[in-house]
């Protein structure tokens, strides 16, 4: 049976962490330059905001379970 290559596995984990950190920084940077409109702004911008009211909460499904 082959021995596990712990150095390789550690390096792969480090590379994955580095990649995720870079992606997070890119999202953060792009989010700062293009802020998303808040809920109040969205209702003012869309002319048909009242056309699609939110769905009513569904009752518990008696057949499930």
Q: Which overall shape is indicated by the principal axes computed on the Cα atoms?
A: flat
Largest sheet: none
Structural class: mainly alpha
Strand element count: 0
Number of helices: 2
- State the helical fraction: 40-55%
Order of helices and strands: HH
Specify Rg, calculated over alpha carbons: 24 Å
Residue stretches low in confidence (pLDDT < 50, at least 5 long) are: none
Distance between the termini: 47 Å
Strand content: under 5%
Mean pLDDT: 76
What key attributes describe this structure?
65 residues, mainly alpha, 0% strand, flat
Walk me through what this model shows.
The structure is a single chain. This protein has 65 residues and is mainly alpha-helical. The protein has two helices and no strands. It has helices spanning 6-33, 39-45. The longest helix has 28 residues, at 6-33. The protein is flat and about 60 Å long. It starts with 5 loop residues before the first helix and ends in a 20-residue tail after the last helix. The mean pLDDT is 76.
